[in-house]
Design a protein that fits this description.
358 residues, alpha/beta, OB fold (Dihydrolipoamide Acetyltransferase, E2P), Rossmann fold, Ribonucleotide Reductase Protein R1, domain 1, 3 domains, five-stranded mixed beta barrel, 10 helices, 13 strands, 22% strand, globular
């Protein structure tokens, strides 16, 4: 990315109002444009510069949420003729997209920060899955980010089948914008480009093989990133995007590409769940008991609506599943944090005793 002003990188009024002038005495503002493991690239008027975080920032972090994410704004000091930088502090975040780490580990994983709109991509083949789409919507609604559903590979289906898929999604999410398109014949790409407002930041989310990287190449106008074909059997692809990175398009919009997600767990996402299942949330206000679990209680308005066919069995089951999962992970996460804090105090006391004896 060429040398560019932070305003053109998306430094909006919201961030301008939160500048600490004292920190600008010896630091500059930059945006994190690439994150790969513990390595960062930050960008501002000095161009793309490799960076690392200070030891203070690392050791004061209570969790992975306190580390820089792609899209973050930071205060950084530049060294060696601006060829290297050290990140000293992270700006307040306007939004933060996160999920549970894959596997058994109960911890947050940062996806991206300061996103205005998130594209949820599903392809119109074996990848299409309404229940998975609801999971993505929970994550996005929890983060207070504007969602847009992109249905790729529209060239695979006749128009009437595409319209049926769009209608199915709108029946669950009537307010969300849906754009079918094809990376192959380029149909619908103009509608995707129309959404890309200059100065705003967008994020591409979806499973491997749905065409995120190909879409990014089409938006850039050149095959800048490697793509790989998917398996015909299940429509799944291999991970091509290995790191999270922010690209600035020619029209001035920023797009963050993310690795494909095969596992999508959520921690403590009550607001996201009720924002996604809004009709169920409204029904819950009519339940007889304030602490209704919506599973077996008498006087449960949600169970009554399920019995009357007002909500589908599949949508109800996904609501319950996501609610239980979120609560379980939240309790496990809080217990882990409690143990980590207790261990941290133990380490400090040992170091203090050692120093006093030394």
């Amino acid at each position: 990315m060429e040398n560019i002003s932070i305003k053109k990188l998306g430094f909006q009024r919201w961030f301008q109002d939160r500048i600490d002038p004292a920190k600008l005495i010896d630091s500059l503002i930059a945006r994190v444009t690439t994150v790969h493991k513990e390595s960062y690239i930050i960008t501002n008027e000095k161009g793309d510069v490799p960076a690392e975080i200070t030891g203070k920032l690392m050791f004061s972090a209570n969790s992975l949420l306190d580390y820089p994410a792609v899209g973050d704004w930071v205060y950084a000091r530049f060294h060696d003729n601006d060829s290297f930088a050290v990140i000293h502090e992270i700006f307040p975040r306007k939004s933060l997209l996160k999920r549970k780490t894959s596997g058994k580990k109960i911890e947050f994983q940062l996806i991206a920060a300061n996103i205005d709109t998130s594209f949820i991509m599903q392809s119109l083949d074996a990848n299409y899955n309404l229940r998975r789409l609801e999971r993505y919507m929970v994550m996005i609604n929890e983060s207070n980010i504007q969602p847009v559903v992109l249905l790729s590979k529209s060239d695979l289906l006749p128009l009437k089948d595409i319209e049926k898929r769009v209608a199915d999604i709108h029946s669950l999410m009537p307010k969300v914008r849906i754009v079918p398109f094809s990376n192959k014949d380029k149909s619908g790409l103009d509608k995707v480009k129309d959404i890309l407002t200059p100065g705003n930041t967008f994020c591409l989310l979806g499973s491997s093989g749905v065409g995120k990287t190909t879409l990014l190449n089409n938006l850039i106008g050149e095959a800048l990133f490697e793509t790989q074909s998917v398996r015909e059997k299940d429509g799944k692809g291999k991970h091509i995007t290995a790191r999270r990175q922010l690209m600035r398009l020619k029209d001035g919009a920023m797009v963050i590409d993310t690795p494909g997600m095969r596992e999508l767990g959520n921690i403590a996402v009550d607001a996201g769940i009720y924002g996604t299942f809004d009709e169920i949330a409204e029904l819950s206000n009519q339940c007889r008991y304030n602490d209704c679990s919506h599973i077996q209680e008498q006087g449960c308005a949600i169970l009554a609506a399920l019995k009357d066919g007002i909500i589908s069995q599949e949508r109800y089951q996904n609501f319950i599943k996501l609610s239980k999962e979120s609560a379980y992970y939240e309790m496990s996460y809080l217990e882990k944090r409690r143990k980590d804090k207790k261990f941290g105090k133990f380490v400090k006391s040992v170091m203090k005793d050692k120093k006093e004896r030394g």
